[in-house]
Amino acid sequence: MTNHLKQRSQQQPSTIRRASRLGTALTGVLLLTGVAACGDQDSAPQAQAEATVARPKSEIKLSDTAVDMPAQMPGGLVDVQLDASPSTKRSHHLAFFRRNDGVSVKQLEKASDAEFESLVTYEGGNAQVNAGASQALTFDLDPGNYTVIDFDEQQNMLIGETTVGARTQGAAEPTAKGTIKLGPGMKITLPKGFDGSGVWKVVNDDPSLPHEAGVGRLAPNKTSADAVAWAKDLNGPPPIETVGGFGAISPGHQGWVDLGPKQDPGNYLVYCALPGSDGVLHLAMGMATEFPVN
Ligand SMILES: [Cu+2]
Prior knowledge:
The chain is of the alpha+beta class. The chain has one domain (2-293). It has helices spanning 2-11, 14-26, 30-40, 44-50, 105-110, 113-119, 224-233, and strands spanning 57-62, 67-68, 72-84, 93-99, 120-125, 134-141, 144-151, 157-167, 179-182, 188-189, 199-204, 211-218, 240-249, 254-258, 266-271, 288-293. Helix 1 (2-11) runs antiparallel to helix 2. It is globular. The N and C termini lie far apart (40 Å). Copper (II) ion is lined by residues 211, 272, 274, 282, 287.
């Protein structure tokens, strides 16, 4: 895993590099979630009665030395607040990996690129949090054992561990302005009126691949085609700067991200910079959709 990530970090400028790491690290929670939620709703009266349950909250403190996270987290929908210490000198990009049953932390650390994806479920993550800043996310976590990796720009990793317990039954989904659909295939579908601010739901509709929803600002006079072309060889300055997003999630999974206040006017992209098994970034295969901020 380490080599896999390092390799990408050396190739990619920091903004995309970060998003890609996020994507890789963060994906993976919602397949089971979606299935469970459907099952729960089979009993309509019960589901209605339970819909008043508040979503549980978890806080993760980020510093230069540790990922300070709860040893146990609730399963299902959970609001997660990432708070970066004002004194931290690194950026923080977290990825939540649920280790498949029986997979140890050591196995993950030793895994090759090809092995890694078969050992985990991508459960989501953030794009980047810097010193003194916070990020609000809502995950839909599958119960199990997790390795949470906090990457900085140089691909240094801080590793946290947590155990995710049973799903909170009846917790309501966050109120979102719409849903960003990842896949199927190298396609991102933005909801009508998507403006890159506020709370958005992200779902992975791909049958087999993890995807992320990075949000980036295009450099002046650059287009999504320029970003796609750049992602093919990563030569020269990136035409896009990451401003937020939700990390990688496995097929059938979902999450929510608060993209914050309105961005500066300009042209933006929602993109996925996860690498495929051949190392080619999904972005290079056209996985980006442009939107304006007026
Ligand atoms: Cu993708």
